[in-house]
Design brief:
Elements lengths: L2 H11 L7 E5 L3 H15 L4 E5 L2 H9 L15 E4 L3 E2 L5 E2 L6 H9 L4 E6 L12 E5 L4 H14 L6 E3 L15 E5 L7 H9 L4 E4 L1 E2 L3 E8 L2 E6 L3
Helix pairs in contact: 1-2
This protein binds ribose-5-phosphate.
GO molecular function: isomerase activity
Function: Catalyzes the reversible conversion of ribose-5-phosphate to ribulose 5-phosphate.
EC number: 5.3.1.6
Length: 232
């Protein structure tokens, strides 16, 4: 997706925020543009209190003087704006391509409204072409991997399960100190059942299926920004 389309989606979603709001800040190359736009507004006197979904977003927000807090200091947010790897017509998402899915899901669930920003290439008829990120505890990695493989088999996955590697070739470590398994399903026909099955595995911390969390989406195409769900 072109950077310009990411910017257009992020700019369009700025209409979701008002001065005085408590805002969740997503992670990734699209969310980064939203944080830039928000930072420009803050420089002009816009007031907000924000919770970042990753250390990377926190660093960016601090550099822009965006006031930050935590979900220990406040227990609810008005809105969260975040990217996605896939979105279907029911606004079910796959997220976690950047490894931030756990904090992203915690922040989205604490928000009155989650807004997705992406380009229209992220819209899919059926979820699953993008490998599903599954965040797992380091302890018992082999046993957890076997149980996840069994679930993939039960759900007729068409691809492999891969331990994500970082740029140094070592296993990628999340902000929470966990590993990520990327599960290539090919197609996911029952996201709810898959979610439940994965969460039954003791070593699975969380997965990247976001169900009943996304309320609205701004999706940019070369022809303009289309919306899904309850935009303002
Ligand atoms: O862990 C990362 C997040 O879920 C991202 O929001 C997602 O991967 C989309 O990222 P991008 O906007 O860079 O395509």
């Amino acid at each position: 997706m072109s950077d310009d389309l990411k910017k257009q989606a992020a700019k369009a979603a700025m209409q979701e925020v008002r001065s005085g709001m408590r805002i969740g800040l997503g992670t990734g190359s699209t969310a980064k543009h939203f944080v830039d736009y928000l930072g420009a507004e803050v420089a002009n006197g816009f007031e907000c209190l924000c919770v970042p979904t990753s250390e990377a977003t926190a660093a960016q927000a601090r550099s822009l003087n965006i006031p930050l807090t935590t979900l220990d200091e406040i227990d609810a947010l008005d809105v969260t704006v975040d990217g996605a790897d896939e979105i279907d017509s029911n606004q079910v998402l796959i997220k976690g391509g950047g490894g931030a899915l756990l904090r992203e899901k915690i922040v989205a669930a604490a928000s009155a409204k989650m807004v997705v920003i992406a380009d229209t290439s992220k819209i899919v008829d059926q979820l699953g072409a993008f490998p599903l990120p599954i965040e797992v505890n380091k302890f018992g990695l082999g046993a957890t991997t076997n149980l996840v493989k069994k679930i993939m088999n039960d759900f007729k996955a068409q691809g492999d399960l891969v331990l994500r590697a970082g740029s140094d070739g070592q296993p990628f470590e999340t902000d929470g100190g966990h590993f990520i398994l990327d599960a290539s399903f090919g197609r996911i026909s029952d996201a709810k059942a898959l979610s439940s099955a994965l969460l039954e595995v003791p070593g699975v911390v969380q997965h990247g299926l976001f169900i009943n969390l996304c309320a609205a989406a701004y999706l940019a195409s070369p022809e303009g920004v289309v919306t899904m769900g309850e935009t303002v």
